[in-house]
Amino acid sequence: MARSRWWLSALALLALAALVITPRLLVASNHDDGELDMKGRALHTTDLFVFREQDQNPGAAAGNLVFIMNVNPRSLPRQEYDFSTNARYDFHVTRVTNNDATPTGKTDAMLRLEFGAPAKDGSQPIKVTAVRDGATSATAMGAARTTPLAASAAPIVTPVNIAGTTISVFAGLREDPFFFDVEQFFRVRAGVLGMGPKTGFRDPGYDFTAGYNVLSIVVRVPQAWLAGSTAATTFDTWVTVSVGGRQVARLGRPAIGEGLLTTTAYQNALNSVGPEFEAAALAGHKAEAEAAGPIVAEAKRTLMAFGNDDKRAAALLLAFLPDVMRIDTTGPSGYTAALNAKGSPIRGRKITDEVIHATLAVVTNGAVRTDNVTYAGPNGGGTSHKPLLMSFPYLADPN
Question: What pLDDT is recorded for position 92?
């Protein structure tokens, strides 16, 4: 399930994306939307993380950012999974001069990973392409390789030279770091919407992702490369997955599209557009705003059912457009570490940040502050997550 403390931004994006949805583009990215004929699970995003490496590892060199894109939800233990050989997995970055500025959705820098067919040992060759300010540099296919399952105890990390700058690349199976009692949330939501009996969260809660893995792409990038010839220290970032020139997945702030929307097509719509579409709508394009109406109305009804009045619900829906993850690198990373004047988080997201606890507090206007699930556990059934690695790529070994 794609998700977030600030999933409200994603919901507004869903509304805007209604303009471009067709019956063939039902391709939502989240942990439990299943496999569709036109979109295998390796194309489904689950999470985006971005943080200053020293905030995860005090012994790391200064000046590097770590980006993590997770895909392929609900990967089972001890099974090999492959990245799509037809897809492009992209990290997008915009330079930001003012923490309070509205995101533009412009891609100033981008890193793209493409994967070749698996070898006999299960590893896949990787091609890395970097685009910055219109200039493109690319490696040959095979400049890096994924870590096959048999080598999971020793992640393969490859230094890759891009136009004189070295980035580090890891790709392979990792334990899914997300933690949330998803099933109980749906029961709680059904109760407040009058679609089922009213109930609360279990104590302890049951962790939906316990025991599952994901396919992870982790890159370590010098902040100086992202800034280019500028003095930028704040960046907006998001990830996309595309096949044949068609964008089939997109994720900025981790989001819970299902949190407020009960119509599947609305949830699915967000993946085919980018934050620049939202920026255009915010600029006053009437057609976009009118098309968004039905989806925004559904999201707003759910917010009000959770205890928000009309004014607060409307403000929450509009607070976090366009949907990107902003990271101000002048302060410590963390999803709740700092907000800008608009109330949006501006310090990225670390791997074990309590995004759901913060989300529930926002959704319910403070009435509910936890689903009683933590990363370390023990959660319902005694489950917990493995300890993170102490060094790059940081994500825990797969189950």
Answer: 98
User: Tokens in use for 335?
Assistant: 């999803």
- Token pair of 39 as six digits: 């979109």
User: Where does residue 378 rank: exposed (0-12), middle (13-18), buried (19+ CB within 10 A)?
Assistant: exposed
Q: Is the pTM of this model over 0.85?
A: yes
Asked if pLDDT for residue 9 goes beyond 50, the answer is no
pLDDT band at residue 150, thresholds of 50, 70 and 90?
confident
So where are the chain's domains? 7-382
Provide the sign of the torsion angle of the four alpha carbons 174, 177, 178, 183, taken in this order: positive
- Taking CA atoms, 304 is separated from 25, 300, 315, in Å, by 29, 6, 12
Of 116, 93, 118, nearest to 103 by C-alpha is 93
Cα torsion angle, 211, 216, 220, 226, sign: negative
**Is the Cβ–Cβ distance between 178 and 71 less than 8 Å?**
no
- Range picked from 23-27, 162-166, 274-278 for highest mean pLDDT: 162-166
Structure tokens belonging to residue 352? 């074990």
Residue 8 pLDDT greater than 60, yes or no = no
β-strands 158-162, 213-222: how paired?
A: unpaired
Q: How far apart are the C-alpha atoms of 332 and 280, rounded to whole Å?
A: 31
Specify the pairing of strand 325-328 against strand 158-162. unpaired
Q: Give yes or no for a contact between 210 and 180, defined as CB atoms under 8 angstroms apart.
A: no
CA distances from 271 to 16, 101, 242, 267 (A): 11, 24, 10, 9
Average pLDDT over residues 128-147: 97
Helix/strand/coil for 295: helix
Q: Report the C-alpha gap between 109 and 242 in whole angstroms.
A: 17
Residue 90 clears pLDDT 50, i.e. is over it: yes
User: Is the Cβ–Cβ distance between 248 and 241 less than 8 Å?
Assistant: yes
